[in-house]
Amino acid sequence: MAESLEVDGELALPLVATIAARLGPTLANAQHVLDVGCGPGVITCALAAHAPSAAVTGLDTAGPLLQRLRERATHQGVADRVTTVEGNLEADLPDLSPADVVWAAMVVHHVADRVATLRRLHDALRPGGTLVLVEFGGQPTVLPPGDPAEGAWQRMQDAAEANLVERLGFDVPHHAWAPELEAAGFTVAGDGPVEFLHPAPLGAAGGRWLPRHARRGIQWAGEALSPADASALDALATSVELGERPDLAIRAERRVVLATRPG
Fold first, then answer.
1. Which of helix, strand or coil describes residue 106?
2. What are the tens digits of pLDDT across the range 114-129?
3. Peptide bond into 145 cis (omega under 30)
4. For residues 181 and 77, what is the distance between their CA atoms, to the nearest angstrom?
5. Which regions of the chain are under pLDDT 50?
6. Which contacts (CB < 8 Å, 24+ apart) does range 223-229 have?
7. Helix (H) / strand (E) containing 203
8. Rounded to an integer, what distance in angstroms lies between the CA atom of residue 49 and that of residue 40?
9. Could you tell me the CA-to-CA distances from 2 to 38, 42, 85, 136 in Å, in that order?
10. By residue range, what is the domain housing residue 140?
11. CA nearest neighbour of 2 among 75, 92, 71, 52
């Protein structure tokens, strides 16, 4: 999963920049940032860039992913401020210094007891600190209006989303996070969609992501997708890989919930 997680992380870098701008001094002046479920660390290293005074801790259960984070941090020149810790959000977290910002992207929907996990994240913050919860939002669009593959893309997205809801047991994009956050001791400061764009022609990040997303969507959709739709989407993926679709742009969305630990 490491390479796939890196591709997804690179796609989300414009989102990180938008959220960082919204956080303003909260992130820019932070002394400690904790990225939970950090994976191979694409976002962790971006957070280090947006919080130039901060020590940044990447926490994950997978040692090999943390090794990739350490290598990335060295390559990007932030290894002196980035620390990795093995830990599981569904157990007591390691003893860490209180964080000014806890970043939890695309991870809390995986846990069995969300309130208990959110309470651990609450306790990892200093009083007055901020939790940034990033979760699934609206479906991404990539095709210009009227494209022959437009219908197949939409059907794939719908089927994959239905598969996700069934697998996780709740509707993540529309889930009411506020009651669970409040039960964990947080005060909710904001909740809404944040859109980000990779314009046409796609650069390296978008060009790597789109074929993977299309083929992953075919797998997730399974029998809900017709053979004709699967063939059309696979052909779209191949055309992107061959550099034959300079007209494609990726417009994606995540739901971003900001919550604070009362001071």
1. coil
2. 999 999 999 999 999 9
3. no
4. 35
5. none
6. 224/155, 224/159, 224/162, 224/163, 225/152, 225/155, 225/156, 225/159, 226/155, 228/152, 229/151, 229/152, 229/155, 229/156
7. none
8. 16
9. 11, 11, 17, 20
10. 2-260
11. 71
The pLDDT value recorded for residue 2 is 86
What is the CB neighbour count within 10 angstroms for residue 136? 19
Using alpha carbons, list the distances in angstroms from residue 123 to 127, 181, 186, 208: 9, 12, 10, 37
Three-state SS at 125: strand
* Number of folded domains that form the chain: 1
The tokens describing 106, both together, are 């695309």
Q: Which two tokens stand for residue 226?
A: 């017709």
Q: What pLDDT score does 18 carry?
A: 98
Look at the block and give the residue holding tokens 């990040």: 205
Please give the backbone phi and psi of residue 92, each rounded to the nearest 5 degrees, phi first. -60, 135
CA–CA gap between residue 136 and residue 119 (Å, rounded):
21
Residues sharing a CB contact under 8 Å with residue 92, sequence separation 6 or more, in sequence order: 120
* CA distance readout (Å), 72 to 15, 18, 66, 132, 192: 19, 22, 10, 23, 31
| CATH code for position 177 | 3.40.50.150
Cα separation of 263 and 78, whole Å?
30
| Residue bearing tokens 């989300």 | 12
Confidence (pLDDT) at 220 = 87
- Residue 104 has what pLDDT? 98
- For residue 229, give Cα distances in angstroms to 14, 80, 221, 239, 248: 30, 48, 11, 15, 18
Helices (H) then strands (E): counts for the chain: 10, 7
Tell me if 132 sits within 8 A of 101, measured CB to CB.
Answer: yes
Output the pLDDT for position 263.
87
